[in-house]
């Protein structure tokens, strides 16, 4: 199995958004069985089982561009709020996908350019010794 990428949301409704992104990824054959939930630690006085992140297992050889593309596509469909998804590798390298930015893109060329740029940034940390 390749590396894992952790996906977190910068929103108060992060649990619902993470469930939505999980459902979108799980519909794609390349991500089935590779996406899981990360639950927040249970608090003694509170409810447990709150979702704090997703983890995505990348196939050997990366496929970061495919994951970034899927997250950008999902973010473009988010019509409410300023949703921000943070994708992080275990080495600390991370990129953010902003729904407002993703929605502002016009045409496939702009979407493709954003996906390529973010994927390169995410992969660069995994390939270099200093991170990003």
Could you please describe the fold and organization of this structure?
- Strands 2-3-1-4-5 form a five-stranded antiparallel beta sheet.
- Mean pLDDT is 86; it is low at 128-132.
- The protein contains four helices and five strands, in the order E-H-E-E-H-E-E-H-H.
- The chain is of the alpha+beta class and 132 residues long.
- Helix content is 40%, strand content 21%.
- It starts with a strand and ends in a 5-residue tail after the last helix.
- It is globular, with a radius of gyration of 15 Å.
- Helix 2 packs across helix 4.
Please give the structural blueprint:
Blueprint: E1 4-9, H1 14-26, E2 35-39, E3 51-57, H2 64-76, E4 84-88, E5 94-98, H3 99-104, H4 107-127
Helix pairs in contact: 2-4
Which short descriptors sum up this protein?
about 130 residues; alpha+beta; five-stranded antiparallel β-sheet
Poorly predicted runs: 128-132
Major β-sheet annotation: 5 strands, antiparallel
Rg value = 15 Å
Report the helical percentage.
40-55%
Question: Distance between termini?
Answer: 23 Å
Could you give the order of strands across the largest sheet? 2-3-1-4-5
How many β-strand stretches?
A: 5
Order of helices and strands: EHEEHEEHH
Structural class: alpha+beta
Round the mean pLDDT to the nearest integer and report it: 86
Q: Helical stretch count?
A: 4
Question: What is the percentage of strand-forming residues?
Answer: 15-25%
* Morphology: globular
Oligomer description: single chain
């Amino acid at each position: 199995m390749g590396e894992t990428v952790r996906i977190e949301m910068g929103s108060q409704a992060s649990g619902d958004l993470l469930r939505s992104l999980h459902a979108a990824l799980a519909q794609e054959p390349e991500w089935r069985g590779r996406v899981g939930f990360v639950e927040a630690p249970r608090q003694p006085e509170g409810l447990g089982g709150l979702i704090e992140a997703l983890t995505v297992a990348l196939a050997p050889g990366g496929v970061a561009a495919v994951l970034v593309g899927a997250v950008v596509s999902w973010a473009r469909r988010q019509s409410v709020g300023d949703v921000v998804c943070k994708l992080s590798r275990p080495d600390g390298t991370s990129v953010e996908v902003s729904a407002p930015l993703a929605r502002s893109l016009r045409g496939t060329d702009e979407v493709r350019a954003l996906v390529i740029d973010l994927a390169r940034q995410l992969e660069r940390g995994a390939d270099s010794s200093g991170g990003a």
